[in-house]
Write a structure and sequence with these properties.
It is built from 17 helices and eleven strands. With about 425 residues, the chain is of the alpha/beta class. The strands form two sheets. Strands 7-6-5-8-9-11-10 form a seven-stranded mixed sheet. β8, α12 and β9 form a beta-alpha-beta unit. α2 packs antiparallel against α3, α2 crosses α6 and α12 crosses α14. The longest helix has 19 residues. About 0% of the residues have low confidence.
Length: about 425
């Protein structure tokens, strides 16, 4: 009988209708596949049972988080090859190939069941969030979702994010190693401040303030009075400590507060950096309307938000199973056009949109490198499953940004008064000289 790796490779190729792009090593020590490719290590039969009882992305994610599947070699190369063969295949061809009416498909599934052993579905890893997707984006459910993601432990985030403690896309003056992550994050905070035209004595509301980096930058570098809000107790405690160490307690207030409960406007400016992805499509117009209400006439909003590509049929959009179950519970991505439309419906005048997609790929690769460089400590702080969640989601996200499957944009919007005086310069941005043909 053929070794397990050869048998599994043959089954996978029959299911995919194409050569399997990476090398496979199975629990019996056998290997099969391209000799120079990264190795997908199937550590036990339980990995197969996870795929059989939950086919698709979630089954693969459960096997990865549990350590039943690992990768030897370059993680980005492996994910890129697997994505091209599995996740990014033509939808019609995939549906046809996997039709249960196909005798070869049914035969491959039976052989995979035989390899997997006793047909008992393994329990999901403990890191998986288990809750129904109903009653989303209430104040209670949002607080629970934020806590799952951000209350992992400040020490863990210090490993991943580095000294800047900024958990959003950096703005790179040049690719690494010419620029550092800390410089790029400083430049992003300064970019936000300049787009908001912050001046001494103004009031800034920082929605989803994280560990306080934007609030500290605005107060220290621009003399602004800042209110930062978050739903994470751990973030708030960390931010307050940093603010005290900077001697900025008279200028910066950090609140554990839902955006729907902020009632002390008007503010001169509002920054929302990496926050709106948590709001949800059904609540987004209400979110934008709340921010519009909190701004003074002529005040500016800087909305920094990840965007997905629009679908032909938007009603068919489904939240990414892995991200929803392990990373950002209840998070949703919207197309850029949808976000701009809802901001306009809330009363804003959208004045500038800047895509910084490539910058996020660079940022994520740096975060992955930070995590892997201090892997043992990260595992000690959070457990191996949680560390593997972060490694996979950040590496896969880097590839998604590089391949233009998702993007990130900074939108500057103004609560323009009835007079029409927006306060914006005639040329908000100066473009460089044309590049080579």
């Amino acid at each position: 009988m053929a070794d397990a790796a050869s048998r599994l490779k043959g089954i996978l190729e029959q299911l995919l209708g194409a050569p399997f792009p990476v090398r496979v090593r199975t629990w019996d020590g056998s290997e099969a596949g391209p000799p120079e490719a990264p190795v997908l290590v199937v550590g036990n039969r339980r990995a197969l049972r996870r795929l059989l009882f939950k086919p698709g992305e979630l089954g693969l994610a459960r096997a990865w988080v549990a350590g039943d599947l690992t990768i030897e070699g370059d993680l980005y190369t492996a994910l890129g090859l697997l994505a091209g063969s599995i996740w990014e295949r033509d939808e019609d061809a995939r549906t046809l190939a996997r039709s249960l009416r196909d005798p070869e498909f049914r035969s491959a599934v039976r052989r995979l069941f035989a390899m997997a052993g006793p047909p008992l579905p393994p329990a999901p890893p403990r890191e998986e969030v288990r809750r129904p997707r109903r009653g989303l984006h209430t104040k209670r459910s949002d607080k629970r979702a934020i806590s799952h993601h951000y209350d992992v432990g400040n020490d863990f985030y210090e490993i991943v994010l580095g000294p800047s403690m900024v958990y959003s896309c950096a703005y790179w003056p040049a690719p690494p190693p010419e620029s550092t992550l800390e410089q790029a994050q400083h430049d992003k905070l300064e970019l936000v401040a300049r787009k908001l035209a912050l001046r001494p004595g103004q009031r800034l509301l920082d929605v989803g303030c994280g560990w306080g980096s934007m609030a500290i930058h605005a107060a220290r570098e621009h003399g602004v009075n800042v209110v930062g809000i978050t739903l994470s107790q751990e973030q708030a405690a960390y931010a307050r400590k940093r603010i005290a160490e900077e001697g900025l307690t008279d200028r910066v207030e950090i609140r554990v507060q839902d955006y729907r409960d902020v009632a002390d406007g008007p503010y001169d400016a509002i920054s929302s950096i990496g926050m709106a992805e948590h709001v949800g499509s059904e609540r987004y117009l209400g979110y934008a309307t709340a921010l519009h209400r909190l701004l003074r006439p002529g005040g500016r909003l800087l909305n920094h938000q990840i965007a997905r590509r629009p679908q032909r049929d938007e009603s068919s959009y489904q939240v990414d199973e892995f991200i929803d179950a392990y990373v950002f519970p209840d998070g949703e991505l919207a197309p850029l056009g949808t976000t701009v439309t809802l901001l306009e419906r809330a009363g804003f005048e959208v004045r500038d949109v800047e895509s910084i997609r490539e910058h996020y790929a660079l940022t994520l690769r740096r975060w992955v490198a930070n995590l892997e460089a201090d892997w043992a400590r990260a595992v000690a702080l959070t457990g191996p499953g949680r560390a593997r969640v972060w490694q996979l989601y950040m590496a896969a996200s880097a590839l998604a940004f590089e391949r233009n499957r998702i993007g990130v944009n900074q939108v500057v919007a103004v609560r323009t008064p009835e007079s029409g005086a927006s306060g914006m310069p005639l040329r908000a941005r100066v473009w460089g000289a044309p590049g080579p043909a």
